[in-house]
Amino acid sequence: MSISVCVASKSYGAVRAVQQVSLEVRRGETVALLGHNGAGKSTTIGMLLGLIAPDAGRVLVCGREPGAAVAEGRIAAMLQDTGMMPAVRVGELVELAGRCYPAPLPTARALDLAGLSPLAGRRVDRLSGGQAQRLRFAVAIVSDPDVLVLDEPTRALDVKARVEFWQAMRAYAATGRSVLFATHYLDEVDENAGRVVVMAGGRVVAAGTPAEIRRMAGGGTVVFTVSGPHGDDTGLAGLPGVTGVSVDGERVTLRTADCDATVRALAAGAVPDWRDLRVSPASLDESFLMLTREAEA
């Protein structure tokens, strides 16, 4: 197991930042860590990196205590807005970072994985925002870690820079390394994560594949056709789970927090003469909001 967090808790005075959090990341797995600001993501990441000691529970990285795993280069992180020496050249900075670890990657290999080989001779202060993020990525992976932690790695990047960053990250993950990343861009989760951990109020409230997270939320859209225009939205809005109604001639679209309950009501005859039923699960964004809203209520 690359990461094992077992009922870990951390408080700051009366504030419970993390409450009995348990999560695992297997070898070769890419996992997204989701949660609103204040959900406990940063504290959890801090515990994984040995920067924060849990008050209770246990945290292991590759079977080691986090501090030892960091010193051995087993885990590395790309944190938000990490400062870099502006007058140093790209290749020099990556080489310097590699000297801090017992068995680093060759500098050329780290630059290649980050897509920075053509920029090895450029000064750090002359990089674009996207190039600077890829340099932070190269500095993180030069230790040749088994586990890589990314904290909002594409924040403030434009679309092109985000695409280029994730291309580099996927190339690295394909070498069999474990990746845990926190992000507010849920399209990145759909495209890059094999599994998702959702946090709210300092707790893990859901975990599973993106498809499983959608099913846990239970919401979505129910669309069907009726015989003749359905002019009365009142009865439709009163169906179990329904949160919104749209009627376009014979076509009815229901937004619902519980697709199963809504469909059962239709099957029981709540709406006469319906046909052509189609049920679509909620998007990952909608599912995330539903799960965290319930946990924070």
From TrEMBL:
This is ABC-2 type transport system ATP-binding protein. InterPro entries: AAA+_ATPase, ABC_transporter-like_ATP-bd, ABC_transporter-like_CS, ABC_transporter_ATP-binding, P-loop_NTPase. Pfam families: ABC_tran. One of its GO terms (cellular component) is plasma membrane. It comes from Thermocatellispora tengchongensis. Gene3D superfamilies: P-loop containing nucleotide triphosphate hydrolases. Residues 3-226 form the ABC transporter domain. Its main location: membrane. It is a peripheral membrane protein. GO terms for molecular function: ATP binding; ATP hydrolysis activity. GO terms for biological process: response to antibiotic. Keywords: Antibiotic resistance, ATP-binding, Nucleotide-binding, Transport.
